[in-house]
Design a protein that fits this description.
With 246 residues, the protein is of the alpha/beta class. The protein has nine helices and twelve strands. The strands form three sheets. A six-stranded mixed beta sheet has the order 5-4-1-6-12-7, sandwiched between helices. Strands 8-11-9-10 form a four-stranded antiparallel beta sheet. β2 and β3 (29-30) form a beta hairpin. The longest helix has 12 residues, at 31-42.
Length: 246
């Protein structure tokens, strides 16, 4: 059994909106609805867990009342790793895999969710995108975490931009944030996350380093940049509105 966790606790501050970020409209609809429609079409999980904040819980529930979902409150904004750990007691016992998605990624397709759900991670599998460069609209991805591989081509870490050195910043394989975990491994290891980074947050991406140090094979399923695109600013919203799909 696969359960999906969607992170949706972010504010709309950077978007210049009073709405929670995931409810900011894209072509007249809250951007999270596109992701939920893809999830429904995939049939991977018909009742995902949506992580919300105390402040945005009511409006998100009301806006998404036509969708089946379970809501879990992240009481403090301590990072993506903390957000996922908040769902620990709400995941069904029979669940074998957990897929983590983000509510501000409206272009992810049902077919990709299906492919992702079929994988069998030892610990964790990730869904990156590979860019030719960071020019044009691909500059939207410059602020994303970089997929760091060792000399053998194996994934060993995801380094967030603010923590990356000059060489790491040149890497064009980047992380949209989509991850598929073996449930048992995830919850046995998520408390090992540390907030010793410049943001002082518990990054879910640091689970990659933990898995690598435990000698787990970390597989990747690459998707195209448009499908991976997230929306974090009015400029990115404008670019997304002009893309052909949706």
């Amino acid at each position: 059994m696969v359960q999906v966790i969607i992170l949706a606790a972010g504010k709309g501050t950077r978007m210049g909106s009073d709405l929670p970020k995931v409810l900011v409209p894209l072509k007249g609809r809250p951007m999270i609805q596109y992701l939920l429609d893809s999830l429904v079409d995939s049939k991977v999980d018909q009742q995902p867990i949506i992580i919300v904040s105390k402040e945005n819980e009511k409006i998100i529930k009301q806006t998404l009342k036509d969708y089946r979902a379970q809501y879990v409150i992240q009481d403090r904004q301590l990072g993506t790793g903390h957000a996922v750990s908040c769902a620990r007691n709400f995941v069904k016992n029979e669940t074998e895999k957990i897929i983590v998605l983000y509510g501000d990624h409206p272009f992810l397709k049902a077919e990709s969710i299906v492919k992702f759900a079929k994988l069998e991670p030892e610990a964790v599998t990730i869904m990156p995108t590979i860019l030719p460069d960071f020019s044009g609209w691909h500059h939207n991805f410059y602020g994303w975490g970089r997929i760091v591989r060792n000399s053998e081509g194996k994934v060993e870490a995801i380094v967030e931009l603010k923590d990356a050195n000059f060489q790491e910043r040149e890497i064009t394989e980047v992380n949209p944030g989509f991850m598929c975990f073996d449930k048992k491994w995830l919850f046995e290891n998520i408390d090992k996350l540390q907030d010793d980074n410049k943001a002082h947050e518990f990054y879910l991406t640091d689970m990659i380093k933990i898995a690598f140090l435990q000698n787990h094979q970390i597989e990747t399923l690459a998707i195209n940049p448009q499908e991976a695109m997230g929306i974090n600013s009015p400029k990115e919203l404008e670019i997304a509105s002009n893309l052909k799909s949706l």
